[in-house]
Amino acid sequence: MRLLLVEDDTMIGETVLQLLRGEHYAVDWVRDGRIADEALRSAKYDLVLLDLGLPKRDGLEVLRALRARRDTTPVMVATARDAVGDRVAGLDAGADDYVVKPYDTDELLARIRALIRRSAGRAEPAFEHKGVSLNPATREASLNGQPVSLSAREWAVLEPLLARPGVVLSRAQLEEKLFSWKDDVSSNAVEVYIHGVRKKLGNDIIQTVRGLGYLVPKQ
Ligand code: CA
C-alpha cells in the first residue's frame, strides 16, 4: 500500500512518516500544496493523509482539484482538535474521513486501515480467499488456518491482488504499492517477492498473466 503524506510541520511529518513506515506502508512525504498536487497527478496512491494548512496551496484547494479531476483516491484530512469548521469544509470538499491533531497513533492507524478497506469495497477487517487469510490490523497471515510468516514486501504484493481476485495488476502497479520515491527498485523486485509468496502459500495463489501482470484467480 502506498500513501501520500502531506504535512508542512517537520516534526509531525517525521513522526508520522516513521509510524507509517513501521507499519510497512510505502510513503511519499511532501510539504506543500503545490508539490502535493503534482504528486497526486503523477502517481496512484491508496490513501492521502492531507494537512489543510499548507504553504503554496491550501489543502482544501488540493482536495477540490483532485475531485474535480474525478480522482477517487481516498483522502483523510488532518485538522486541529477544535477546528470543527475545517473538518466540515474538508468533508464537503470531498474528503472521506478526518483525523484530529495531535494524533492518537492507534486511532490514526485504525482509521487508515478502515478507509483503505472501505475504498476496496470490503466490510470485513480480514480478507480470505482460497484458504489464505490476511488481517491488516494484526498483520497475521494464514494458510488453511496455519500461521504463515510473510515479509513486509511479500505482504505488500499479495494484499492488493488478494483484495480483488480475478483483477490483473501490472508489474508497474505493484511496484507503485511497494516503493516510495526514495527507494531504489531493481527491475525484478516484484518477481522476487511473488516468488517468495508462492513458496509460502503455493504456486497457484498468484498466477502470471503473460504480458499483462499478475492475478489471484477467482476460483
Ligand atoms: Ca500545516
Q: Topology of this structure?
A:
Blueprint: E1 2-6, H1 10-22, E2 26-30, H2 33-42, E3 47-51, H3 59-68, E4 75-80, H4 84-92, E5 97-101, H5 105-119, E6 127-129, E7 132-135, E8 140-143, E9 146-148, H6 152-163, H7 171-178, H8 189-201, E10 207-209, E11 213-215
Parallel strand pairs: 1-2, 1-3, 3-4, 4-5
Antiparallel strand pairs: 6-7, 7-8, 8-9, 10-11
The structure holds calcium ion.
What keyword list fits this structure?
single chain, 219 residues, alpha/beta, Rossmann fold, Arc Repressor Mutant, subunit A, 2 domains, 5-stranded parallel beta sheet, 41% helix, 21% strand, binds calcium ion
Mean pLDDT: 93
The whole-angstrom Rg is 18 Å
Q: Could you give the order of the helices and strands?
A: EHEHEHEHEHEEEEHHHEE
Ligands (ions, cofactors included): calcium ion
- Say what oligomer this is: single chain
Spatial sequence of strands, sheet with the most strands:
2-1-3-4-5
Tell me the CATH topology of the largest domain. Rossmann fold
Q: What's the level 1 CATH class of the largest domain?
A: Alpha Beta
Shape: globular
Helical segment count: 8
Give the N-to-C terminal Cα separation. Answer: 25 Å
The major beta sheet can be summarized as:
5 strands, parallel
CATH superfamily of the largest domain: Response regulator
Number of strands: 11
Share of helix, binned: 40-55%
What CATH architecture label of the largest domain applies? 3-Layer(aba) Sandwich
How much β-strand is present in the residues?
15-25%
